[in-house]
Amino acid sequence: QKEVEQNSGPLSVPEGAIASLNCTYSDRGSQSFFWYRQYSGKSPELIMFIYSNGDKEDGRFTAQLNKASQYVSLLIRDSQPSDSATYLCACDYGSSNTGKLIFGQGTTLQVKP
Amino acid sequence: DAGVIQSPRHEVTEMGQEVTLRCKPISGHNSLFWYRQTMMRGLELLIYFNNNVPIDDSGMPEDRFSAKMPNASFSTLKIQPSEPRDSAVYFCASRRDRLPQHFGDGTRLSIL
After folding, report:
1. Is A42 near chain B, with CB under 8 Å?
2. Cβ-Cβ contacts under 8 Å, A44 against chain B
3. Which residues in chain B are closer than 8 Å to A42, comparing Cβ atoms?
4. A43 in reach of chain B (CB within 8 A)
5. B2: distance to nearest CA of chain A, Å?
6. Residues of A with Cβ-Cβ distance to B33 under 8 angstroms
7. Are B98 and A97 in contact (CB under 8 A)?
8. What would the 3-class secondary structure string for B2-52 be?
C-alpha cells in the first residue's frame, strides 16, 4: 500500500512566523512531489513541485526534498492569515511521472493575526 | 486562460438514479484525471486518461462507476446506480505532458 503521511494539525502559527509542514512517503520509486493548498470548500491549488533532492524556493515558499529519508517539507515564511488553509502533499506513484498522484490527508494551517 | 471546467457544481439526487459528471480540461492538456474527496478517505484518484485513452482505472470503486473521454476536450464520470456512500466532492484535473496537474472547481454530489 503506497502511502503519504501528514500530520493533520491544526498547526497554529502567529502572523509573520515561519510555518513548517511535513510529509513522508512510502514509495521509494517516487520522483515527483507536489504541495497543493486547499481553502475550505474550494479545489486544490498547486503551490510548489519538486523533483530533485534539496531545496526549491518560490517567493515565500520553500519546498525541501530528502529522498533518502523519504521526506518532503514546505516552509512558508512571513506567514499571513490568508495562508490559513489545508496543505496537501502528493507523490507521483512510481518512477515514471505518470501523474498518478497519491495524496496525504492534509495539514490544516492556522495563521493568527 | 480558462481553467478546468466541471459541471454541474452541485448535484443532489436520490439513491438509484444515474449521475453524470462532466469535465472540460484546459486546452492543450493531454492528460485528464478524476478524483474523489471525502473526509474519511481524503483525495483519491479514480481514473486517468492520456491522449483520451484510459490508462489506469484501478481507483474506480465499483462497476457502478464508469468514465469516458470521447475527445480531447470532454470527459464524463458516470455512476449508475448511485448510492448514498457515493456522496463526495468529485474533482477533475488536467495536465500537459509531465507538468503538474491543475484542478477544476469540483462537483459536490449528494445522494439521498
Report:
1. yes
2. 43, 91, 103
3. 105
4. yes
5. 15
6. 99, 101
7. yes
8. CCCEEECCEEEECCCCCEEEEEECCCCCCEEEEEEEECCCEEEEEEEEECC
| Residue A68 cell numbers, joined | 533518502
Q: What is the DSSP string of A47-104?
A: EEEE-SSEEEEETTEEEEEETTTTEEEEEESS--GGG-EEEEEEEESSSS--S-EEE-
Instruction: Say which of B48, B91, B105 has its CB closest to residue A99.
Output: B48
Residues A31-84: tens digit of each pLDDT: 899 999 999 999 999 999 999 889 999 999 999 999 999 999 999 999 999 999
CB A35 within 8 A of CB A48: yes
Residue A113, classed as helix, strand or coil, is: coil
Q: Dihedrals φ, ψ of A11, to 5°? A: -95, 120
CA gap B75, A71 in Å, rounded = 35
pLDDT for the residue B95? 96
pLDDT at A1 over 70: no
Find, among A52, A34, A7, A15, the residue nearest to A100 by Cα. A34
Looking at the partner chain, which of B42, B43, B95 has a beta carbon nearest the beta carbon of A99? B95
Is A27 within 8 Å of A96 (Cβ atoms)?
A: no
- Residues (pLDDT < 70) of chain B are 1
Contact list, A48 vs chain B (CB under 8 Å): none
